[in-house]
Design goal:
alpha+beta; elongated; 5-stranded mixed sheet
């Protein structure tokens, strides 16, 4: 029989991450690759592991993540958000610590749409007097 797992969905910009956690010894897999290989930039992995550190569950959970959409930074934030939600399903008593760390709040900032007559969302064409 399979072990019980807890699942959380995290989102950021265009990225969506489905995070599953089970008790274990700290294996961390993202899209069938080790997390260190999938997130090569140091800051991205630190942000994710920070969520575990706040809850005091470093090296106590096996984490499996399926993430798609967006870029690397959006994906790492989505994984962090999903991880916090999954840990909350596992233990509701973690809510105050995760809330204080800001891990439960979805970062709602997304790309602003392009407006007519402009080059991008706010960049206007160069003004020429003559």
């Amino acid at each position: 029989m399979a072990e019980e797992y807890f699942e959380g969905i995290g989102r950021r910009k265009r990225a969506t991450a489905r995070v599953r956690i089970v008790s274990g010894e700290g294996a961390f897999v993202v899209n069938d690759k080790p997390a260190e290989e999938y997130f090569p930039r140091l800051g991205d992995l630190i942000k994710i592991k920070d969520t575990l550190r706040v809850a005091g569950l470093e090296d106590k959970l096996d984490i499996s993540v399926m993430v798609n959409g967006g870029g690397i930074t959006g994906q790492s934030s989505a994984v962090s958000h999903g991880l916090a939600r999954a840990m909350l399903k596992m233990d509701e008593n973690l809510r105050p610590r995760l809330r204080k760390a800001g891990a439960l709040t979805r970062d709602a900032r997304i790309k602003e749409r392009k407006k007519p007559g402009l080059k991008r969302a706010r960049k206007a064409p160069t003004y020429t007097k003559r």
